Amino acid sequence: MTTVREAILDLCRAHGLTTWFGNPGSSELALLEDFPSDLRYFLGLQEMIPVGMADAYAQITRRPALVNLHTAPGMGNAQGQLYNAYVNKTPLIVTAGNQRRSMQNQYCLLTNHEPTVTPRPFVKWAAEPATASEAPAVLARAIHLATTPPMGPVFVSLPMDDMPIELTDAQAAETAVVRERTVIRAAGFPPELAAQIGAQLSNAASPAIIVGGDVDRYEATDLVVGLAERTQSSVYTAPLTGWSGFPENHPLYQGALPPGAGWISQILEGHDLILAIGTSVFRYYPLVPGPYLPAGAQLVHITNDPDEAARAPVGDAIVADVRSAASALLAAAEPTQRPAPAPRPAAPEVEPGQAPLKPEALWAAVNRAANPNALWVSEAGSNEVAMTHSIRPSRPMSHLSAAGGGLGWGLPAAVGAQLAAPDRPVVALMGDGSMHYAITALWTAARYDIPITVVVASNAEYGVVKQFGVWEKTPEVPGLDIPGLNIVETATSYGVDAHEAHTTDEVTELVGAGIADRSRPTLINARTQKVPLGFSG
Which whole-number Å values give the CA distances from 36 to 5, 6, 40, 133, in the listed order? Predict the structure, then answer.
C-alpha cells in the first residue's frame, strides 16, 4: 500500500523537486523520516536561511524549489524571506507540518490553527488538505500555480498524522494521474502590436528601454540586447527589480535607476519614448517629488503580471509573455540611423588605499579580481550605488539582489546560488549590518563545503538608514550604530576561511584567492568609511 508520505515524495520526484531546503521540527518528522537517498536536504539554522537559499536556487535553475519549515513559529521566522520571494516572483513550494488533526481543536502546542492565513499575503495560494488522502493533489496544484507566470511562492500545511495514512487502491490511482499530468502554458505576441511598437521606436528621437528582472528570468536578455542595438536605445535597469536584465558592460547600458519618481524623470530627461519590459513601473522609495516621466515622454509597458499593469501610475500597459514580446519586437523593429547614445562613464580605476577604505575603492579592488564567469549577489545598502559603478558583469543572470529589500536575504541567497550554479564562482557583496540578519548562513556554507566568496563592507552602522534619515529630516534616531562586530572571528567560528583586508591590494589578492578556492567558503572583511549623510539618485 502507498502512504500519503510516499505519494508526496513520488510527486516531488516527478516534478524535479529533489533538492530540499529546511529547518525541521517535531511536526515534520513524519515526512522526513528515512529520508530517501535520491533527495538531498540542506539545513539552515533558522528558518529564514533555507527560504533565502531556495529563493536564489529556484531563480537560477529556473525551476521550483521546495522549502520545508516548522509549523506556525517556523513560518513566522521565515516570513521576512517569504516577502522577498514574493516580490522576487520566485516559485517556491513552501510546506510546513502542523499538529495532529485530533489535537488541533484543543490548540495544543505547535498547532497552526490558521495555516492558510499565516503566510499571507506573501504567497500566491495557501492550503491545508481537507483530508489526508487529498495532500498529494493539493501539493500538485500548488506546484502548478507557483510556476505559472507571474510566478511566486505557494504554501501547503501538512498535518503530521496525515503522513502514515495508507491510500486505497482507488486513491493511489487518482494520485498517480495527478502526479503525471502536465500544465502547459502557450505564449505569443500579436504581430500587429509588435509592428505598432516597432514604429514608435523608429519614429522616436531618443528612445529608452527600461528592463527588469523578468528579462533575465524568462531568458529574454539576448533578444532585448538585439532590440536595443537595432534601435540604438539607451538602456536602464528599473529600480529594485532583482536581476540587472542587461549586460552591465554594454555601451548602451546606462546603469540602474534610483527608486524615486523625481530622480527618474530627471535621468530620463530628453527621452521621448520609454519602453519598460519585464518590470513594474516603477518601485519607489523614498518619496521624491517630481513627475513620473519627463515632459513629452510616452511610456509603453510590457509585463506578464496583470497587477503590475493595473497599478502602474503612468503609461500604456500590455500583459504578455516577456520573451515572446521581446522576440516579436526584435523582428518588427527597423534598424535606425540615429547615433548611439553616449556611454556612461568608465568603471573607476583602483586607487591604492588603506582601511578604512572608500566604498568606491573597495569595489574597484574587488572588480580587479573579478572572474568573467562570476555570479554576484549583493546586499550592501549604502554601498549599492558605488558597487554598480565598479562591478559590471556581462553575462545574463550575473547580478542578483532582493527586489523586496528585506534584509537577511543576501548571504543565504549566495549559498543557494552556488548550489544552483556549481560551475560559476559566486561572490556575495555584503554590508556588515545586513549580513548579520542571517549570519548563520555561514555555517550552512561551511557544513556543506559550498565555496562562496563573501566580501563585507564594514562601516559599523546602518548607513543607508542614516541616509534615509537625512532625506526624511529625522535626526538623532537611535540604534543605527553597530560597533563591536568581529566578523572575521565570527565567520571563523562557523568554519569559514576568513580574513581581514587592510589595503586595496589585499582586497584584490584575497578575493582572487577566494574565487579560485572551489573547496570551501571564504570571507574577506574590509573596514570602510562612514557613508556621507546625504541621499540622491
Answer: 12, 10, 8, 21
Instruction: Report the alpha-carbon distance of residue 154 to residue 151 in Å, rounded.
Output: 10
Query: In angstroms, rounded to a whole number, what is the distance separating the alpha carbons of residues 475 and 326?
Result: 47
Query: What does each C-alpha distance from 19 to 54, 153, 531 come to in angstroms?
Result: 9, 16, 40
Burial of 100 (0-12, 13-18, 19+ CB in 10 A): middle
Q: What are 425's strand-pairing partners?
A: none
Q: Lowest-pLDDT range, 250-259, 474-483, 501-510?
A: 474-483
Q: Which cell goes with 152?
A: 511566486
Q: Which residues are paired to 22 by β-bridges?
A: 43, 68
Q: How does DSSP assign 292-307, residue by residue?
A: SS-TT-EEEEEES-HH
> Looking at residue 537, what is its pLDDT?
47
Sign of CA dihedral 317, 320, 323, 328: negative
- Separation of alpha carbons 94 and 99, rounded Å: 17
Burial of 492 from C-beta contacts in 10 A (0-12 / 13-18 / 19+):
middle
Report yes or no: 498 and 520 within 8 Å, Cβ to Cβ: no
Give, for 501, the enclosing helix (H) or strand (E): strand 497-501
Q: What distance in Å separates the CA atoms of residue 105 and residue 285, rounded to the nearest whole number?
A: 44
For residue 423 the three cell numbers come to 560551475
Measure the CA–CA gap between 489 and 525, rounded to whole angstroms. Answer: 11
Read off φ and ψ for residue 159, nearest 5 degrees: -55, 140
Q: Are strands 154-159 and 207-211 parallel, antiparallel or unpaired?
A: unpaired
Q: What is the pLDDT of residues 194-219, one digit of tens each?
A: 999 999 999 999 999 999 999 999 99
Contact between 266 and 291 under an 8 Å Cβ cutoff? The reply is: no
d(CA 211, CA 323): 12
CA dihedral sign of residues 223, 224, 225, 227: positive
Dist CA 483 CA 33 (whole Å): 44
104: how many CB neighbours lie within 10 A of its CB? Answer: 16
Q: How many helices (H) and strands (E) does the chain have?
A: 21, 18
Q: How far is CA 186 from CA 63, 148, 183, 321, 446, in A?
A: 18, 11, 10, 9, 42
pLDDT tens for 394-423 read 999 999 999 988 899 999 999 999 999 999
Cβ-contact 333, 198 below 8 angstroms: yes
Q: Please give the torsion angle defined by the CA atoms of residues 457, 462, 465 and 469, in that order, rounded to the nearest 10 degrees.
A: -120
Instruction: Specify the amino acid at residue 317.
Output: A
Which phi and psi (to 5°) does residue 513 adopt? Answer: -65, -40
Q: Which residues contact 443 (CB under 8 A, 6 or more apart)?
A: 45, 494, 495
